[in-house]
Every structure is written in structure tokens, then in C-alpha cells.
């Protein structure tokens, strides 16, 4: 019983000492990576910029830092007069070298009409 009380009090002390302004799970929602995924993310950004010259591009690792699932939002004139399936195929073709290492992809393509 003494062990339980000491253990609970040490948990309470750690909880009070911990800063709650930065939760532990924050890494899941950031685009920073842990083990070299920056290379994948940077390569995706470079390939998409070269191919589509987007007016807006957002590439985010949403896999919790392991680089297996990316969310991409790209706005480009290249998607004008294209159906969604066609524009998604264009993006998939552009990143095919990196795509084989990715397990999931959330993709949003927007036609820039300006």
C-alpha cells in the first residue's frame, strides 16, 4: 500500500511540473519529422513545385513523424479544365519516385483560375 501511495504522489508531482502548453501528442499534427522524413517531404515539395508551379502548396507528414502518410494540398493553373481524378493522377505521376515509400496519401487539388 505504501508503494501505491508513493507512486501516486510521484505521478501527481510530475503532472504538476509538466508544462501543459505543449501536449505530448503535438508531434502528430506538425510537419516536422523524426527519422529522415524531411527528405521525403522536401523531395515531394521540390517535385511538385517543378512540375506544377503552384500558387499554393502544403505538404504535411500526418503519420506522427514516420513519413508513411502525407497530406498534400496543391493549387495550380495546371489543373484548370481537369476533373478531380485527372488532377490526382497528374500529382501521383509527378511524385511516383517517392510514392512507393508512402503508405497513404490525402490529396486535394485546386484549379487556380487567376
Fold and architecture overview:
This protein has one domain (23-111): BolA-like (GMP Synthetase, Chain A, domain 3, 2-Layer Sandwich), CATH 3.30.300.90. It contains four helices and three strands; from the N terminus they run H-H-E-E-H-H-E. Strand 1 and strand 2 form a beta hairpin. The protein is globular. With 114 residues, the protein is α+β, with helices and mostly antiparallel strands. It has a three-stranded mixed β-sheet. Pfam families: BolA. InterPro entries: BolA, BolA-like_sf, Mt_Fe-S_assembly_factor. Belongs to the BolA/IbaG family.
Mean pLDDT comes to 76
Fraction of residues in H or I helices: 40-55%
What is the CATH top level name?
Answer: Alpha Beta
The total count of strands amounts to 3
CATH superfamily membership, which one?
BolA-like
H and E order:
HHEEHHE
CATH topology: GMP Synthetase, Chain A, domain 3
Architecture, according to CATH? 2-Layer Sandwich
Major sheet: arrangement of strands:
1-2-3
**C-alpha termini separation:** 71 Å
Could you tell me the radius of gyration in angstroms?
21 Å
Low-confidence stretches: 1-9, 14-34
Describe the structure concisely for a colleague:
This protein has 114 residues and is an alpha+beta fold.
Furnish the topology, listing elements before pairings:
Blueprint: H1 2-17, H2 37-52, E1 56-61, E2 69-76, H3 84-94, H4 96-99, E3 104-111
Parallel strand pairs: 2-3
Antiparallel strand pairs: 1-2
InterPro entries: BolA, BolA-like_sf, Mt_Fe-S_assembly_factor
Family: Belongs to the BolA/IbaG family.
Amino acid at each position: 500500500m505504501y508503494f501505491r501511495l508513493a507512486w501516486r504522489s510521484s505521478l501527481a508531482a510530475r503532472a504538476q511540473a509538466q508544462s501543459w502548453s505543449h501536449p505530448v501528442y503535438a508531434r502528430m499534427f506538425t510537419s516536422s519529422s523524426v527519422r529522415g522524413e524531411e527528405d521525403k517531404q522536401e523531395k515531394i515539395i521540390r517535385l511538385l513545385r517543378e512540375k506544377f508551379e503552384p500558387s499554393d502548396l502544403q505538404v504535411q507528414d500526418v503519420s506522427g513523424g514516420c513519413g508513411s502518410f502525407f497530406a498534400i494540398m496543391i493549387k495550380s493553373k495546371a489543373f484548370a479544365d481537369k476533373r478531380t481524378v485527372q488532377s490526382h493522377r497528374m500529382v501521383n505521376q509527378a511524385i511516383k519516385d517517392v510514392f512507393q515509400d508512402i503508405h497513404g496519401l490525402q490529396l486535394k487539388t485546386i484549379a487556380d483560375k487567376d
